[in-house]
Amino acid sequence: MPWNLNSDSPIFLQITDYIKNDIVLGRYKSGDKLPSVRDLAVEAGVNPNTMQRALSNLEQTGLVHSERTSGRFITEDENIIKELKTSLVNKQIEEFFINMKKLGLNEEEILQLVSDFAGK
Amino acid sequence: MSNLLTIQGLTKKYGSNTALNNINLSIAPGHITGLLGPNGSGKTTLIKTICGLLVPNSGTISVDGNPVGIESKKIISYLPDCTCLDDSMTITAIVKTFKYFFEDFDTERAYEMLSNLSIDTKARFKTLSKGTKEKVQLILAMSRRAKLYLLDEPIGGVDPAAREYIINTIMNNYDPSASIIISTHLISDVEQLMDDAIFLQNGQVKLHKPVDDIRDEYGKSLDEYFREVYRC
Amino acid sequence: MLKKLINYELKKTSKIMIPACFISLIYSILCGVQILHSYAGYNDHSLNDFGDYFGETSFYVYLPMIFAATILLTVRYYKSLYASEGYFAFTLPASISNIISSKIIVGFIWEIATILSITVGLFSTIAFNKNVTLKDCCLNDFVSELLIAFVVWAIVYYSTLYLSVTIGRLWSKHIIIGTFLSLQVMLAVLLFGLIIVNSILYNVLTTTIITLIFYSICAIIAFFLINYINILITKKTLNLE
To answer: Which residue of A has its CA nearest to B222?
Structure first.
């Protein structure tokens, strides 16, 4: 089952986001070993070189580190993961606010609608 | 790491028509490269020249350090755009023939793929439908443990379900020491498979970049970018 | 790899050639029987008529068959190298010399097989007859000339045909005409060569055996030359569409 990837933007970036999501959702817990590049590539339905690029990208963010012979592991540092979750959540909130404002709502109206929605 | 394929100054003319005009190209191992361009841009000519089916007017080709000859043919697996096999043979006989001539042919893998696509190996090649013939030829090409795979329109006449199987097969058989060059018109189907793209026009290399770089730079899919570049 | 190519080529052509050899055998046995039959009433052991007799019946029965087998093998040469099957042939890990040589060698093998079939057929019937001896057959002048011509021709037979195809296909619009024309030119050249050789060495070529040996050597040289030219031209002009 290939991942839902869009050909319009760089795939390696989309993969990076996808894996970040997986980490936040708990599919990959801290200290877990990631599948090999090839296995991930087959799962995602992409070229292994593209997957390689994505994983290198992740390494740069500190979320993933590689042990020379054993493969790639999710970071043990819980803080980094928490930060990731926070930043993803904030991004969603930001996008939400932008979209709501496009519909012509101001901040007070937005907050009111949100608590009404949550109350249901 | 030395390149798997190095082409320098390759030129091929047919009378007054220049099919390949001073092509310079290198491909490292472990890449799946799309060879793209409109009809008549020289894709098939380029592939045939690498295989040794055409004699160029000038230029050099080096396949894993070998010039075009016996050694290069041993490590190249070619899938032509047409059917090139003796029709009257059964598929089993054809598989045997491939194994007979090519040491790196993996018979088990061939039969596995044939059964996965429900192809009757006792059938004579000429009795198969066009799409099935193409599938068989592709299976034969992918069953070689070659270093350089040259696939000319591998999924052209094949139904969408089989296309996915074929694309997955190509992906699953990925070998970091080998490279694949796919020449195709069906870019959107094969985009995700490629990591590099070469655009040919009028026998010249217009572009040779990683596909993700193209997406990054132009904010479009490879298919869309291609259409833009080659708009009529 | 050459052995593999030869094996493969033999298998592919055996469907045509094994029946051809078999028919040759049967036909030549029948011929032998008929010759004996018609000579049964003759006290004259001269076999001058043998040549005429064989010639007549061959013309209507046997030659068309040989002609057909030849055409089929030549067409196969073209198809397996220059039609879509050529994509397979020239991507095999073998040198062009080996690929072409395998076809020539196989053509030669089938020729010898056919000739043996005829010889065995003819001489098996004639040899068993007490009235006619092998000597009568072979040392007859006409037969010996025929034999020499036959041997020379046999050595270069398929080579000339295959070279004609290689040259003929260069005229891409009219391959068959091209092949035919180049064959005619080649045969003319060969014949001319033989005539020149004959006139120069006319004093030396006294007995049949010497002539036979000498012309055979010329034919063998021609064989290698023709095939060398074939391989050279193929290498230079390989352009599979």
So the answer is: A7
